Amino acid sequence: MDVRSAQIVLECAQRGSLGAAAAALNMTQPAITRMLKRLEASFGVPLFERTTRGVVPTVFGDALLPYAKLVVSEIGNAAHLIQQMRGASRGVVRIGGVASVVGGFIIAVIAEMRKHHPEIQYQVIEDLEDRLLEGLKGGRIDIAISPEPYLDDDIVIATPDVMHDTVSVFASWDHPILKRGHLTLSEAARFDWAMPPPGTPTVREWQRRFHDNGLDPNAPSIISRSVPVLKAAVLSQMLCCWMPLPLVREEVERGSMARVKVPELDWQRTFRVYRRKKGLMTPPTVTLLNCIRRIAETWSM
Q: The whole model's pTM is what?
């Protein structure tokens, strides 16, 4: 599968039509059909099912899609790297991070970088740990800062430990539980919660702390990947959240939210910087990593 074949697979899957794929790739439909048949013959399986409404990926086509995306992404990255090394294009760094580091640490690093490298463009992606890993593996992110240890053959640590933060329980300032002082884990199990989706690293750790003590916490009443949504739920619905302090510092300092003292639910996280194992880092990415190391030495979350 070469890059052109990978592009055809992706366009056919996305547009559901050979004609639309041909138009997007500036090719004729017969040429698309020939290349697709040749690719299917090389694998010995049908990649798309032809219907009266267009084409739909088969189970084999679905299995091929992530690899087609990687082929297209890596070829694009290689071309971009060569252009940057020749000085023919503006440098671009794509950096991802969880919400607690994007608005503070990453922006501080970029501010320092721009003093000496104003020509570089910074594309910042904020998401939860699982999506950041997908972005790294798929070539859509150059480096990611995450507290989740990525145990993956395609991902490596780019720098040593970067920083730490603490995840705690927070509630609105007028929540009745704040009057009760220190609370036990069994009492916290009965809280009404607003949390990220099940299966995300934060929720897995939250559940583990209860389950390791034989407790089953109330299922979250509101689930969202959005930090503003979770905070709005806490402020308006008398719910509790489990969040890093940097994400609620403004509300805490303003007095609209407060930390709920549940010592067994205080979790200190260690952040690391990750990159793909394969492929060269672009010069701007290397420069950014050096800046991250310098800023991390004095950064406090």
A: 0.63
The answer for residues whose C-beta is within 8 angstroms of residue 20's C-beta and 6 or more apart is 11, 54
- How many residues make up the chain in this entry? 301
CA angle 213–224–95, rounded 5-degree value: 100
Judge: domain 88-163+270-296, CATH 3.50.50.60: no
From first CA to last CA, the distance across the chain in angstroms is: 46
Token pair for 169: 């329980």
> Among 252, 238, 251, which Cα is nearest to 174's?
238
What is the residue-wise DSSP string for 197-213?
A: -TTSHHHHHHHHHHHTT
* Amino acid in the structure at residue 192: D
Task: Read off the tokens for 167.
Answer: 């995840």
Measured over all CA atoms, what is the biggest interatomic distance in the chain, rounded to whole angstroms?
73
Burial of 167 (0-12, 13-18, 19+ CB in 10 A): buried
180-219 pLDDT, tens digit each: 888 999 999 999 999 999 988 889 999 999 999 999 999 9
Question: Under a CB-based contact definition with an 8 Å cutoff, are residues 45 and 59 in contact?
Answer: no
Q: What share of the chain is helix, strand, coil (3-state, %, to 5)?
A: 50, 20, 30
Contact status, residue 90 vs residue 119, Cβ threshold 8 Å:
yes
Count CA atoms within 13 Å of residue 227 on its CB side.
Answer: 19
Domain 165-268 has CATH 3.40.190.290: yes
pLDDT of res. 221: 95
Tokens found for residue 211: 């389950």
Tokens of 284: 């701007």
Burial 14-23 (b: 16+ CB within 10 A, else e): ebbbbebbbe
Q: Is residue 111 helix, strand or coil?
A: helix
Classify 3-84 by CATH class.
mainly alpha
In the chain, where the domains are located? 3-84, 88-163+270-296, 165-268
